[in-house]
Amino acid sequence: MTLEKLQSEIQDLSEVEINTIHKLVQALKRTRVSPLAYIEEMMNFQFMRYDEKEDVYIHRMCVTDELKNRYKILHGGITATFIDTAMGATAVQALGEETSAVTIDLQVHFLSPGKEGWLYAYTKFVKKGKTIITMESKVKDEREKLIATASSTFFRLK
Q1: Which of 1, 22, 55, 156 is the most exposed place for a label (fewest CB within 10 A)?
Q2: Record's family (predicted)?
Q3: Please, what CATH class does the domain formed by 43-156 belong to?
């Protein structure tokens, strides 16, 4: 694709569509300097903090129109991606940067729709084995409404 072809493609887009294209380009550019993948940048994925009292790692993402399905709620696959990303980040944050782990399985229970604003994943360890890591996560919206729960198993790479 040439710049000229791209310009002709976007000529008849609405202002809202142009803003979406801008967000996509900005997320793509951020991946040049960020350790996050493109989809993580699209979600505005962020580590918030470790809550020592609750023993949970807290991450968040922003629900935007680009991440919603045809029913105007957060796409379930994006919710699952957010949870998987929060769990993977938790493994690295808790076990060290030298830790590499991949998802073996992920079970998500969708309880309420994510509609707008920030969603928060509260992730804790169930087991930290030498090769197998098991975690649980709860996703809540800004009003503390439970959006989803999940459990996952990760495999530590050598």
Answers
A1: 1
A2: Belongs to the YigI thioesterase family.
A3: alpha beta
Q: What is the pTM of this model?
A: 0.87
Q: Does position 124 have pLDDT exceeding 80, yes or no?
A: yes
Domain positions in the chain: 1-30, 43-156
Closest CA to 108 of 131, 141, 130, 75: 75
Q: Please give the Cα distance from 2 to 62 (Å, whole number).
A: 32
pLDDT of residue 11: 87
C-alpha–C-alpha distance, residues 156 and 150, integer Å: 19
* Residue range 18-46, pLDDT digits in tens: 888 888 888 888 888 876 678 888 899 99
Give the Cα separation of 98 and 149 in Å (integer).
28
Q: What percent of the chain has pLDDT over 70?
A: 99
Q: Is 131 exposed, middle or buried (0-12, 13-18, 19+ CB in 10 A)?
A: exposed
